[in-house]
Write a structure and sequence with these properties.
Blueprint lengths: L17 H11 L10 H11 L1 E4 L11 E5 L1 H11 L30 E6 H10 L4 H7 L10 E6 L5 H15 L3 H11 L1 E4 L2 E2 L6 E2 L2 H10 L9 H11 L1 E5 L4 E5 L1 H10 L8 H4 L9
Antiparallel strand pairs: 1-9, 2-5, 2-8, 3-4, 3-5, 6-7, 8-9
Helix pairs in contact: 1-2, 6-7, 6-8, 7-9
Length: 285
């Protein structure tokens, strides 16, 4: 699909969630004749290559124009590259094609950021993004002091993240043979959601974890190489980044691939002066 400028959303026509497009594209990639690829293999290839396409009616992230879903370890690679981990590093000079506005300042996490993790994993996250130990401990719910040793939900905004993670765990209980093992792995890895996806119809923003659950359910019978927990593990380790730029384009990629693109256009700490003035016309990252 090609359009010169993004269409203006109509009052009662919601935008299409980019995750729906990503999963649908992955599904289309595995239904060809004699195609032996699995759903996660196709999704891997798409995220590793990255997508850059005109945003004709897709929902964009709010705040800094970027949305990230990843494990704690993978998210911290993203956060360090764009300058939202401590100690703060002076940001790259702004340029007209920047996707983001104020990464690299000394305010740390400036967008909605919610975490589900074990206490140990959460404290690693808190230290990296500059949350003091006393503040981090105070943020832990009472359940963190139980034998489960789970930090559960630590939120900077109320967008239904906790309810959506509960839905994910409920889905796992119904569809995975050992949901207890899945939950343990999820807590150890940590589940970070940074930013929110806009809904142009209502103006509301909410956690996209519920959208992932809906898509997992929709495609639950599609061929997988690994088991369902393994699929979710791979997705979190790779990370998913969705961003929109001022030129009307949308970008979907893994954390690693998105950071390569971001470095080229001057969004990361390692950006060069020459790169800041460049524009890109690439259709695939």
């Amino acid at each position: 699909m090609i359009c010169a400028t993004p269409p203006i959303p109509q009052p009662c026509v919601p935008c299409v969630h980019p995750l729906e497009y990503l999963f649908e594209l992955s599904y289309v990639g595995i239904i060809g004749v004699n195609n032996r690829s699995s759903m996660e293999e196709t999704l891997d290839r798409i995220l590793d290559k990255g997508l850059n396409f005109p945003n004709c009616g897709y929902c964009c992230p709010d705040c800094e124009g970027v949305y990230v879903l990843a494990s704690v370890e993978t998210f911290l690679k993203f956060a360090e590259a764009v300058g939202i981990t401590l100690p703060p590093v002076p940001p790259a000079s702004p340029s007209s094609n920047n996707l983001l506005g104020s990464f690299g300042n000394d305010t740390g996490l400036v967008c909605c950021s919610n975490v589900y993790a074990s206490v140990e994993t959460y404290l690693k996250y808190a230290e990296a993004v500059g949350i003091t130990i006393s503040t981090a401990v105070e943020a832990l719910p009472l359940s963190a002091n139980t034998e489960e040793n789970s930090a559960e939900f630590v939120q900077t905004c109320c967008n239904g993240y906790d309810e959506c993670v509960d839905e994910l765990i409920c889905w796992a209980t119904k569809n995975i043979s050992r949901p207890d093992v899945f939950v343990d792995r999820l807590q150890d890895k940590g589940l970070v959601e940074y930013g929110q996806i806009q809904n142009n119809c209502t103006g509301a923003v909410s956690s996209s974890i519920c959208k992932f659950v809906d898509l997992f359910e929709k495609y639950k019978n599609v061929k997988l190489t690994t088991d369902k927990p393994g699929f979710i593990d791979r997705l979190l380790d790779k990370g998913v980044v969705i961003s929109c730029d001022s030129n009307g384009n949308m970008h979907i990629a893994s954390v690693e691939t998105w950071l390569k693109y971001a470095e080229a256009v001057g969004l990361t700490q390692s950006a060069t002066v020459e790169a800041l003035g460049e524009t890109t016309t690439t259709t695939v990252l």
